[in-house]
Amino acid sequence: AYIDRARSSYDGSFKRNGVDLIEGRAHFVDSHTVSVNGELIRAKHIVIATGARPSIPTIPGAELGGSSDDVFAWEQLPESVAILGAGYIAVELAGVLHALGVKTDLFVRRDRPLRTFDSYIVEGLVNEMEKTGLPLHTHKVPVKLEESEQGITIHFEDGSSHTASQVIWATGRRPNVDGLELEKAGVTLNERGFIQVDEYQNTVVDGIYALGD
Predict the structure, then answer these.
(1) pTM for this prediction
(2) Residue 157 is part of which domain span?
(3) InterPro entries attached here (predicted)?
(4) pLDDT tens figures, 73-128
(5) How far apart are CA 116 and CA 112, in angstroms?
(6) Is 86 found in the same domain as 23?
(7) pLDDT at 212
(8) Which sign, positive or negative, has the C-alpha torsion 173, 63, 99, 9?
(9) Same domain, yes or no: 4 and 45
(10) How far is Cα 124 from Cα 67, in angstroms, rounded to an integer?
């Protein structure tokens, strides 16, 4: 419901500001032309803001877990949840669900969450998690998920396991660039598959920019 209201708000804002909204799948024809539903649209400046989708590991039973997107569709809170991931989405979800009274456990693959953040921020976060009683499990690499009578059981590389009502994958995002035919515009991707940009969000092609996840 929240997401639907947000989208309705955006639609209203577009209309008030004279922005034409064209719904459909777009792809590049050249560096200044895109095709949407067979209609060619030319522009001097083009912004790519197609976002990203959750990246789910390819391990047995991975489909038993949900993603951060699925949380917004919950109609009621689960009794317990295990969150797998070390980024800010994992940390945010763990904090929110824990504060709402859900038995929450956060599992990270290495020694700490938010590894790319400043160490003093991470230390403060970990200390706060300890104070509030939010369990942080380090060096936990999931190898399999399976259904059990108690919920969903996660099996880890070290031989341990954990069972929760819900499992949430928060293990990164994958860019939504499939089908854009970026090569026709000369736009390139980096080694992670995201659109290559500089510090000002310029792609390698003049007049084409990429923003967002």
Answers:
(1) 0.83
(2) 53-173
(3) FAD/NAD-bd_sf, FAD/NAD-binding_dom, GSHR/TRXR-like
(4) 899 999 999 999 999 999 999 999 999 999 999 999 999 999 999 999 999 999 99
(5) 10
(6) no
(7) 85
(8) positive
(9) yes
(10) 26
Please give the pLDDT value at position 189. 97
The CATH number assigned to the domain holding 18 equals 3.50.50.60
Answer yes or no: do 181 and 96 share one domain. Answer: no
Whether 38 and 61 have beta carbons less than 8 Å apart is answered as no
78 with 166: CB under 8 angstroms? yes
- Tokens 């998690």 correspond to 129
Shared-domain flag, residues 43 and 66 = no
Say if residue 64 is in the same domain as residue 140: yes
Residues 129 and 64 in one domain: yes
86-102 CB burial, b ≥16 within 10 A, e <16 = bbebbbebbbebbeeeb
Number of H helices, E strands in the chain: 4, 15
Q: What are phi and psi of 47, to 5 degrees?
A: -110, 125
* Residues 151, 67 share a domain: yes
21 and 3, same structural domain? yes
What does the pLDDT read at residue 66? 97
Helix (H) or strand (E) holding 58: none
Q: Write the single-letter amino acid at 69.
A: D
**Number of structural domains the chain divides into:** 2
Residue numbers of the chain with a pLDDT score lower than 50: none
Nearest CA among 201, 203, 208, 165 for reference residue 42: 208
How far is residue 122's CA from residue 128's CA, in Å, rounded to a whole number?
10
**CA separation, residue 54 to residues 50, 83, 136 (Å):** 13, 13, 22
